[in-house]
C-alpha cells in the first residue's frame, strides 16, 4: 500500500488563492468530529467558497454551492478520487472504483447496472423479509429492555439482512464493518485514522476480494445479479467483482450510521417519537429526516477538470474541492429551523445521499432498512431513554456513534 | 409562467403556478402538493413522483428515457400507458394548462 507516498499537492505550504476566505479548521480532527455543527456554521458564514489551509483544498458548505458542485460532474470530476488523494498524482490505495470514482461515459454504464440491481422493483422482492427481520429484532430487544443501540440494533439489524441480500457466505462477515470503516477513513487526509486503517487493511481486503467472485455469491442475491449482467454483456467479467465490491464498501456501514442516527434522534427528541408512534406511516420520513439532520456521510471531494468560476471565485484546474454535505443539510438559506429534527418535514432535496449522477445508488436499500426498523419501533416501543454515556466514533467520512446505551419500554 | 393542475385521487384539483424550466415535481414540492413524495429529489432514482398524464397531454410531452421507463415498472401504484415521472417533465409555457393525475400511493 502506498499510503505514505504523499506528494506536495495537498500540503499546507501550498500557495493559497487570493480573495477566498482562509480558515485553519481541520474537518478531519477529533475536535471537529465531536461538534461539527459549530464549525459548519463558521464555514458557511465565511463565504460560499473557502480555502482550508490545513490540507490545501477548497471547501463549500452552503447548500447552493454543494448542490452546484454535485451537479456539474464534468467540471468537478470523480475519476481523480472523491477523497483528498488526487489519483492523477498519487496511486489509489486500492484499485479505483469503477462507479464512485468514475466519470461519464464510463460511469453511465456501470451505474445503470447497479441502478437496476437495486431498483424499486428489486426492493419489492426483499421488502417482506426486511420487515419481518426488523419486527423480530425489536421484539428481541424488548425482552432485554436495556442495550447498546449501536451494536445491538444499528449494527445488528443491517448485519441480519444486508449480507444475506448480497448473497454472502456466513464465514468471514466480521470483516465487513472493518472494511467499510477503512474505505471511508481512506477518503480523508493522511492522518492517523487513515494511516492506521490502511496498515491493518490486508485481511479485510483479502476477504472482500474473495467475496466479490461469482463462486462465492449465492444465486438470487444482489451480487449474483451483478454477475448476471456480465453474461448479458452490459459489463465485462472483470468489472462485475468490482461492482460487487462497491456494494460491500458502501452498503453496510452507511445504513448502520443512518439507523444509528435515527435512534439517536428518537432518543433525544421524545416529542418526535410520540408523533411517529401516533402515525407509524411517518417512519420512512423520520428516517430520511435523520439522514438530513445527522448526515452519516459527511463529506466527499471532487477535482476540477478546468479553471472554473464558482460563486464569483476563480478556481484553477486540478484543485480539490471538499463538499460539506452535513453543513448543506443544515444551511438556514435552504432549510427552515435547520437544527430541529422534525419527522414531518418535507425532506426532498437534502444532499445526505448526494445529488446528480452519483447520487447514492443504494438509497432505496437504505430507506427500506430505515423505514421498516422505525415502523417496528413506532408500533412496539413506548419510550426510549438514554441510560449511559454516549460515545462518538471517529471516522474521516462517516458520522456516527460508538455506543448509545438506551432503555426502551413496550407499547 | 405555466400553470399546471394536479388532480388528487379523490378528484380534487390543485392548480399551481410553475416556473419556466422547473420540473413538474419541483413545482409540486414547492407548493407542497401532498401526493408527490420525490424522495430522490428529481434524480430519477425513486419513482415516488409518479403521475398519470391527462388524456390529450401525453403526446405533447417529450418522450421518456430508458431510466424513467425502467423505474416506472417499480412504481408503487399500477403502471398505466399514461404513467410518467413528474421529475422528468420539464415545464415551459407550451405546457401551460397541463393536467396530471396523482396515483393513490407512491410507496
Ligand atoms: C444511509 C445510508 C447511505 C448514505 C447516507 C449514503 C450516502 C451516499 C452518498 C452521499 C453518495 C454520493 C457519493 C458521491 O457523490 O461521490 C453515495 C453513493 C453511493 N452509494 Fe450510498 N449511501 C447510503 C447507503 C448505501 C447503500 C445501502 C448502498 C448499497 C447497497 C450504497 C451504495 C452506494 C454506491 C455504489 C454509490 C456510488 C454511486 C455512484 O457513484 O454513482 N449506499 N452514497
Ligand atoms: S423524484 Fe425520484 S424519480 Fe422523480
Give me a quick take on this structure:
Chain A is an alpha+beta fold. Chain A has 16 helices and 13 strands.
Walk me through this protein's architecture.
With 411 residues, chain A is an alpha+beta fold. Chain A has one domain: Cytochrome P450 (Cytochrome p450, Orthogonal Bundle), CATH 1.10.630.10. Chain A has helices at 30-34, 36-46, 63-70, 106-117, 120-144, 149-166, 176-186, 192-199, 202-211, 222-231, 239-250, 253-268, 270-278, 283-294, 325-328, 363-380; strands at 22-23, 50-52, 57-60, 76-77, 146-148, 299-304, 308-310, 313-315, 320-324, 381-386, 391-393, 400-403, 405-410. In chain A, strand 7 (308-310) and strand 8 form a beta hairpin. The longest helix of chain A has 25 residues, at 120-144. Mean pLDDT of chain A is 95; it is low at 1-13. Chain B has 107 residues and is of the alpha+beta class. Chain B has helices spanning 24-30, 66-72, and strands at residues 3-7, 13-17, 50-53, 83-85, 99-101. The relative contact order of chain B is 0.30. The model of chain B has no long low-confidence stretch (mean pLDDT 95). The site of protoporphyrin IX containing FE has 28 residues of chain A, from helix 4, helix 11, helix 12 and helix 16.
How are the elements arranged and paired?
The complex is a heterodimer of chains A (411) and B (107).
Chain A: E1 22-23, H1 30-34, H2 36-46, E2 50-52, E3 57-60, H3 63-70, E4 76-77, H4 106-117, H5 120-144, E5 146-148, H6 149-166, H7 176-186, H8 192-199, H9 202-211, H10 222-231, H11 239-250, H12 253-268, H13 270-278, H14 283-294, E6 299-304, E7 308-310, E8 313-315, E9 320-324, H15 325-328, H16 363-380, E10 381-386, E11 391-393, E12 400-403, E13 405-410
Parallel strand pairs in A: 1-2, 3-9
Antiparallel strand pairs in A: 2-3, 4-6, 5-13, 6-9, 7-8, 10-13, 11-12
Chain B: E1 3-7, E2 13-17, H1 24-30, E3 50-53, H2 66-72, E4 83-85, E5 99-101
Parallel strand pairs in B: 1-5
Antiparallel strand pairs in B: 1-2, 3-4, 3-5
Bound molecules: protoporphyrin IX containing FE (HEM) and FE2/S2 (inorganic) cluster (FES).
Residues 78, 82, 99-100, 111, 114, 118, 246-247, 250-251, 254-255, 258, 291, 296-297, 300, 325, 352-354, 358, 360-362, 365-366 of chain A line the site of protoporphyrin IX containing FE (HEM).
Amino acid at each position: 500500500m502506498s499510503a505514505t507516498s504523499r506528494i506536495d499537492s495537498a500540503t499546507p505550504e501550498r500557495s493559497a488563492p487570493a480573495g477566498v476566505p482562509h480558515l485553519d479548521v481541520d474537518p478531519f480532527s477529533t475536535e471537529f468530529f465531536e461538534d461539527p455543527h459549530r464549525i459548519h456554521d463558521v464555514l458557511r458564514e465565511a463565504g460560499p467558497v473557502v480555502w482550508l489551509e490545513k490540507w490545501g483544498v477548497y471547501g463549500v458548505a452552503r447548500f447552493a454551492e454543494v448542490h452546484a458542485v454535485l451537479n456539474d460532474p464534468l467540471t468537478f470530476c470523480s475519476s481523480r478520487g472523491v477523497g483528498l488523494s488526487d489519483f492523477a498524482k498519487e496511486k489509489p490505495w486500492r484499485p479505483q472504483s469503477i462507479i464512485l470514482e468514475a466519470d461519464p461515459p464510463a460511469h453511465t454504464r456501470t451505474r445503470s447496472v447497479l441502478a437496476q440491481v437495486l431498483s424499486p422493483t428489486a426492493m419489492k422482492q426483499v421488502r417482506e423479509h426486511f420487515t419481518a427481520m426488523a419486527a423480530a429484532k425489536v421484539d428481541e430487544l424488548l425482552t432485554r429492555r436495556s442495550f447498546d443501540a449501536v451494536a445491538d440494533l444499528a449494527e445488528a439489524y443491517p448485519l441480519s439482512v444486508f449480507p444475506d441480500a448480497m448473497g454472502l457466505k456466513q464465514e468471514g462477515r466480521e470483516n465487513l464493518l472493518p472494511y467499510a470503516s477503512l474505505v471511508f477513513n481512506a477518503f480523508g487526509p493522511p492522518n492517523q485514522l487513515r494511516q492506521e486503517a490502511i496498515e491493518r487493511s490486508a485481511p479485510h481486503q483479502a476477504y472482500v476480494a474473495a467475496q466479490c467472485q461469482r463462486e462465492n455469491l449465492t444465486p438470487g442475491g444482489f451480487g449474483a445479479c451483478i454477475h448476471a449482467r456480465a453474461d448479458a454483456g452490459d459489463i465485462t467479467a472483470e468489472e462485475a467483482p468490482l461492482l460487487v465490491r462497491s456494494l460491500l464498501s458502501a452498503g453496510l456501514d452507511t445504513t448502520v450510521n443512518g439507523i444509528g442516527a435515527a435512534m439517536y434522534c428518537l432518543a433525544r427528541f421524545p416529542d418526535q417519537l410520540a408523533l411517529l408512534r401516533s402515525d407509524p406511516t411517518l417512519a420512512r420520513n423520520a428516517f430520511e429526516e435523520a439522514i438530513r439532520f445527522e448526515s452519516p456521510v459527511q463529506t466527499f471531494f471532487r477535482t476540477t477538470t478546468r479553471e472554473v468560476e464558482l460563486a464569483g471565485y476563480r478556481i484553477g484546474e486540478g484543485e480539490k474541492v471538499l463538499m460539506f454535505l452535513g453543513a448543506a443539510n443544515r444551511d438556514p438559506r435552504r432549510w427552515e429551523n435547520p437544527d430541529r429534527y422534525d419527522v414531518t418535514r418535507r425532506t426532498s432535496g437534502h444532499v445526505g445521499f448526494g445529488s446528480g449522477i452519483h447520487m447514492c445508488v443504494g438509497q432505496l436499500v437504505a430507506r427500506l432498512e430505515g423505514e421498516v426498523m422505525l415502523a417496528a419501533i413506532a408500533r412496539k416501543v413506548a419510550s426510549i431513554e438514554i441510560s449511559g454515556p454516549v460515545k462518538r466514533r471517529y471516522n474521516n467520512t462517516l458520522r456516527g456513534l460508538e455506543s448509545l446505551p438506551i432503555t426502551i419500554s413496550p407499547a | 409562467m405555466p400553470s399546471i393542475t394536479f388532480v388528487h385521487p379523490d378528484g380534487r384539483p390543485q392548480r399551481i403556478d410553475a416556473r419556466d424550466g422547473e420540473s413538474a415535481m419541483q413545482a409540486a414540492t414547492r407548493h407542497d402538493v401532498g401526493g408527490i413524495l420525490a424522495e430522490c429529489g428529481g434524480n430519477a432514482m425513486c419513482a415516488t413522483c409518479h403521475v398519470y398524464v391527462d388524456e390529450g397531454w401525453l403526446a405533447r410531452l417529450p418522450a421518456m428515457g430508458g431510466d424513467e421507463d425502467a423505474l416506472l415498472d417499480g412504481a408503487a401504484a399500477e403502471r398505466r400507458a399514461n404513467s410518467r415521472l413528474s421529475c422528468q417533465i420539464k415545464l415551459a409555457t407550451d405546457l401551460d394548462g397541463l393536467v396530471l393525475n396523482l396515483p393513490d400511493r407512491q410507496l
